[in-house]
Target: TetR family transcriptional regulator
Amino acid sequence: MARGRTGRRPGNQDTRGLILTAAREAFSQRGYDGTSIKQIATSAGVDAALVHHYFGTKEKLFLAVVRPPVDPALLIPQVLAEGPEGVPTRIVRTFLQTCEGPVTGPAFLGMLRGGTSHRWQGLLLRDFFTTQIVRRVLDKREDIGDPSYLPLRTSLVASQLFGLALTRYVLKFEPLASAHQDAVVTAVAPTIARYLTGDITAELESGNSGL
Amino acid sequence: MARGRTGRRPGNQDTRGLILTAAREAFSQRGYDGTSIKQIATSAGVDAALVHHYFGTKEKLFLAVVRPPVDPALLIPQVLAEGPEGVPTRIVRTFLQTCEGPVTGPAFLGMLRGGTSHRWQGLLLRDFFTTQIVRRVLDKREDIGDPSYLPLRTSLVASQLFGLALTRYVLKFEPLASAHQDAVVTAVAPTIARYLTGDITAELESGNSGL
Model:
């Protein structure tokens, strides 16, 4: 992305690097929502206009910091393409395809391992998943009920998908590790469906959480 | 456990250590089910009777290798105590209590981090969870249907519980990270219930995995 812009003025790679370092620090400390381009510019010692010049939007700067294995702009339309009914199924399928892609797989599992070992990497992974993936998938959905539960729904979806990656690819629980994608989708999609739009807050005593 | 047995003969701590090392290698390469006391004795260069003398059963030797944060012999009765209806609820609650205990919590999260970074630690964690926890919980249950699905059910339970630990304690997704235990139990127990005894293999095209 920045390749075509190098050489515009001397030292701009250094400036770009300074901004990226400041952005990584800000995003991993205050999160995506709590960080502004202005704060990043200030801590990098540059003008906010320069940050916009190099990286465009805050979102693009965030993606330049996280360097996710897949571009959400390509992923999201795939998940949403055929209407809301199949969203849980397509979330699980797209997640599995990403984890099993020859390039995206190792990259994502590297993020997961890094996020487990290093606090700042974990925060970036969390914010990437929350703000760039789930928030966009649920944007404008009218069937998710009380919007104040959206962050809890997002956390629960993450708990199942990240746990799926951990057990299928890292810990290699069998037969989950070698199961066909279809079987995994069948088993897990209803969980994602319930976390996205189902009843997740019924009273404990109602018996809903029993067997 | 071994403390009271030291001094019985000179060098027995070395022998004990040799057996433990051989056991760790065997369990992490061939798994719990694929390993016998005899194999361990052979690769440690001692008699099988000596392995039994120091460690008792294969199960006890396995626990001495894994050194789990909690003793399954204490945990399982707690989960099963009040009959099968509440098992999913009590699985999630017991898991959360273990993860949040002042001693057991850091120990379990250490196992999870170790299992994510080191293949052999991952295999031990997997086999501990499978053979010492879930297998015992489901022992003699008649409502789990076709027993050949038991390993898949176990994998799926692990995917949700380990993912819950990852997002709640390590990546700290909010509000999951600071949610009350009751709220987490309410949200997650139905998932565990379905993985344990529900329909996890319905045909994809039946629409069961849709929203």
Notes: Chain B touches chain A through 64 residues (CB under 8 Å). Confidence is low (pLDDT under 50) at residues 1-10, 204-211 of chain B.
